[in-house]
Amino acid sequence: MIRFALAFLLAPMAMMAATISVNVYAALGPSPYPGESPSYGTAYPQAGTYATTVQDALQAGGTDSGDINTSPTAFNKVTSVNASEILTSAGAFNLWRGNLSPTGNFANETGTFLFFPFSITVTGGQVALSDVTFTQTFSNPTLQAAYGVNYVYSAADIYSFEEMGFVSPNTYLTAGQSATTPVDGIFNTGGFFAFAYNATANGGATPSEQLANTQAAIAAFGNYTITTCVSVGGASNCADVAVNAPASIPEPGTYALMGAGLLSLFALRRKRG
Q: 39 near 111, Cβ under 8 Å?
């Protein structure tokens, strides 16, 4: 199963003389789904949480913050990952970057996602959530056909701490605002992408067997690149991430029940209280 959510914003705008800057990044982080990670965060600012770290980093120009090797709340930009790193158990068992029973700060994590944070700033005009277009392409034709996304947010979307609109001077809109509310810019914690074990499609009585089945399935895609772009008012920026296939593949007998049902798409908008 690919769990994939877009927490982005986007479409046309009337800003004839505006100067727009768009920056898109890629980073590893904990599960954004409620109840699956103790470190993702549910509000802004919330010290020691991933979403707050990312928002602060975006406001500081996209600079790295902390160390992803020692803390799940760190923001470290990446240009390549191993597919075995971006796995989630969907809350079923503890997992971090493909490792079962992680320890220390990662002991209670249930998966690692590939996030795509971005920032938009405007000089001489304004932008709205509904002005932004998000596109994502996969160099692997099979993945692109199944999961390629070209998404425009609707007026039903609202700002949250995951997508902060800001107006001068340093006034942030984090809740209750319409997607059409004009702002001077947007900081977005990011849509996300991860492979997840599907118990219906795969056998495996233990977490170890389930993990092996999932790795075997995603290894079949080989190496590929994910290109994520954000566009608004004629300005755009993209981030490329090389995804490398798992180095080792389990014996065929360990994933005899693997099927096409392993992968499915979740394209949804996160709304948190």
A: no
